[in-house]
Amino acid sequence: MSDAYLNPGLPKPAPAPDGLDAPYWEAVAEERLVLQHCRDCGAWQWGPEWICHRCHSQNLAFDDVPLIGRIYSYERVWHPVHPALNEQGPYIIVLVEFPDHDGARMVGNLLGDPRQDVEIGARVQAVFEHHQDDDPAHTLVHWEVV
After folding, report:
1. What is the mean pLDDT of residues 60-81?
2. Residue 132: partners with Cβ closer than 8 Å, 6 or more residues away
3. Closest Cα to residue 39, out of 57, 64, 66, 65?
4. How far is CA 56 from CA 40, 49, 99, 105, 141, in A?
5. Which element (helix H / strand E) includes 22?
6. Contact 22, 52 (CB under 8 A)
7. For the chain, what percent of residues have pLDDT higher than 90?
């Protein structure tokens, strides 16, 4: 994607200093999605943690998941949450569920008309917005209805 979805001036996302989420940022830069997967009990989870949410094992890895999920919930944002967004609104934030991966969920922006009808359960596909010239360089994951 060549144009940024949201106005410039927002804080730049970066991997956590402890490196826990670095595999996620590396994957999205390659236009892949990864979630944590427990090697002991098989549970999938998001966001990154040092232990499994189900069995408390520390034996976690990041594994690829499909670029398709389903809208679990959404919020149409009308009021700016940051000064850079004063002139932008509304926009839609979706909570995307991966039903075949223990219902793990990830947040992102829904592309398209900000006044569009949003259907819970609708299939959405990941769209990657690269910011290579930013410091630090990063990639954002947005969603669009399939």
Report:
1. 95
2. none
3. 57
4. 9, 10, 22, 19, 28
5. helix 22-29
6. no
7. 73
Two tokens, residue 33: 């999605």
Contact between 126 and 1 under an 8 Å Cβ cutoff? The reply is no
Q: How far apart are the first and last CA of the chain?
A: 17
- Least confidently predicted of 4-8, 25-29, 46-50, 139-143: 4-8
Full-model pTM? 0.89
Residue 106: name the closest of 33, 38, 53, 50 by CA. Answer: 33
Q: Are the C-beta atoms of residues 72 and 120 closer than 8 Å to each other? A: yes
Q: Contact 33/62 with Cβ under 8 angstroms?
A: no
